[in-house]
User: Fold this.
Amino acid sequence: MTEESKCAIGVTILQNGLALGGMYEPSMPDVSGEEVDTTSQNNIGGVTTRCIGKLTNGNFGFKIHFTGSAAQTALISDIYDRDTDIWTVVMPMGSGDISNHSWTWSGQIAKSPVMVEDSGNLYIDLEVTVNGKMTHVSTAGVGLTTTSFGIVNSTANALTPSPTAAPTVYEYTVEAYSDDVSVLITPVATAGTIYINGTVVATTVASGVITLNTGIGAVTYVSIVVTDLNKTPRVYWIKFVIGNTATPE
Assistant:
């Protein structure tokens, strides 16, 4: 055999199209079936027969490092809302055929405490119910197309991503000006629904104002997710870093 196992570093968890970040230590739900006795009165050979009746899903468990972002902070209190969300696990982008795979299901947050690792990192230990069958998809969506996206700051100065924006490049770094406090992103896609930080944005239309963490060297991550019906979403990450050059006059 020549196949090698696939690396799962960079697996992303989505909540209603919002990329929450890379997850680790995922625990797939166990499924148990209720056994029903179907032995007939005139059983041949005296053997008990059974069939599987109702199925019970366990919870899907995973951890994400806590960054203090608004999206992750909301997870901690979402358990009280009892909302049912669409959850999707997406394999790492740009990793060959495995990036075409995803699992989607409907569920509610069942556990979401903030914990501290021995290393000192904060993380959220989450469990989500699985209300029905997890749908496995192995066909990738189209994702962003042509110029992919453009970025301007609050004074309409263009910011350039590195590497250059392209449909099959999924991770970018953008150096912002030292006095930048926000950006606007204009995505381009010919199919599917575009989410920027979980908010739907139409193709070729600028997003709402995206607030950046301020101070030289400060980092802000922004996700662009493109979903297609019955296809694996395409997930793009943009890392904004505040530089030490002020906006030109």
